[in-house]
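Checklist before submission:
- one chain only
- standard amino acids only
- sequence pasted in full

Submission:
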Amino acid sequence: MRTQVVIIGAGPAGLALGRLLEQAGVDAMILERKSAQYVLGRIRAGVLEWGSVELLDRAGAGARMHAEGLVHHGTALSFDGDRMHIDFTDLVGKQVMVYGQTEVTRDLMDIRQGTTIYEAEDVQLHDFDGQPWVSYTKDGTTHRIDCDFIAGCDGYHGVSRASLPASAVSTFERVYPFGWLGVLVDKPPVDPELIYAHHARGFALCSQRSPTRSRYYVQVAADEKVEAWSDTRFWDELRRRLDPQTAERIETGPSIEKSIAPLRSFVAEPLRFGRLFLAGDAAHIVPPTGAKGLNLALGDVALLGDALMEALQEGSDAGIDSYSVRALQRIWKAERFSWWMTSLLHVFPETGDFGRRIQRAEFDYLMGSRAARQSLAENYVGLP
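Returned file contents:
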């Protein structure tokens, strides 16, 4: 079996890349270790930069997003009950779209015309420094796919980065001493926009998926167990961390999903290894505080898709030669912003009272400086 590009991973990064390539007439196959139902069952964040919205439109996957997504013109930050509004439209003339990553994945699945092989086991990457090929097992039979290029879009724990010699890749990582306990509930959002809150007890976030479905988070210790959190305990803790007016308006209900996500910052360099390229979570992880994970992945595949088309259709290696450098420039800027948001809004026990005073000074500076708010807005809605 032969194809031009083998894409490892059928999350939004892999599906978006596959769609961009098939639109250009490039033959691409996707291999996914899990079932389609499993992929669609993963609950993930859903704040899209406007550049991501435009990319999904380019891929022909934007119709339902525009019908059901929620355009947000700003967001709110609070510190010990003091609240400020960040007006994206006024500050930078752009917006974001709230639309769940699960829905993005579903839309990309629905429009895919090429081959996606789900439940592909024992995927292995071969000879990516020369004439690459990929092997996998399906229903007990081993298959081989010869190709021109391999795109590793299979996430932090995937086989793509794990296939590299340790000497070929440098990694940079910070693991935070806390996680986010998240609850999904079929109740209207407490506010038309997202609310990020710092409190002495820890961070909290009021988010949303639709006009009738909300997502709420609280900061918890890294070793916390989700089983220790009843719905009642969660709602009580969330209210403690919000300003009184917001806390009073929250509509509570039984959780339909509850989980704890650890927080880490991670980057692998470079992103090209011969004819193997890394994109999305295989290459980088950001804390969810800045809403950058999915957007960085889509930014990667926009660059990579154009580079692969140029190589396969025009015979030019300029795009693939510059892919890693160009992608990493944007990745590190997003890593910085996500780290900054995380540092401002979470409680770090090791920094003590001095650390909280610095956080308060940063918040007060934002409140008093249009230039500071403009910088926050510019990064939040997405750098070019």
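Reviewer check: The first strand starts at residue 5 and ends at 8.
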